[in-house]
Amino acid sequence: MNAPRQETIEIVDENRFGLHVQFQRLSDRWAHQIVWLKPNSPPQIVLSSIEGNSSEQWPPSPPMQELSLQRENRTSPPVAMLLGRAGTAHWSASFEFDVRPMRLIVDVACRISQPTGFVGSRYRMAAAPTDTQRIQDRIELARNADRVVSGRAEDCQASRSIDDSHELAISPRPQKPPATLRWKYIIALEPLD
Asked: 3-class DSSP state for residue 21?
């Protein structure tokens, strides 16, 4: 029996607004897209993970080879848990929804035993951000007349490209090996004030 090539987790409110994560199997790893769901409109891809290949010891995003979906109970949104390995490093991640406020919490860790190249998560942003889209500690990723999708890093570093690539990089604070590096970020769907 073949393993699935796609898996999805999502959360949708009573007005049909929501967030959706589409995991897709690419060769030896799971890539993902974070999508904004809007009523009476096509889904809008907000972020797409930038993946490496099996020859890279330090790929642009965690090389997640295993994916498991879990539910706390029948009414709770599913949680995606992922594991992976590249070179001597071991990776883990969870993608979990919070209902109120509507947000996706991504928590990633990498166990390192030697000095590293880039460790973190890289995304291609669907829209080019402008300087005015940076709001305090958040980066605006998409908006319509009454809602905004924003991203916020917690106890880690986030940076945007300043060229035409529209990339977002989220990485842990540096530590000397051996260490477990951890980075956490939140994608939120919020009403505009």
From this structure: strand
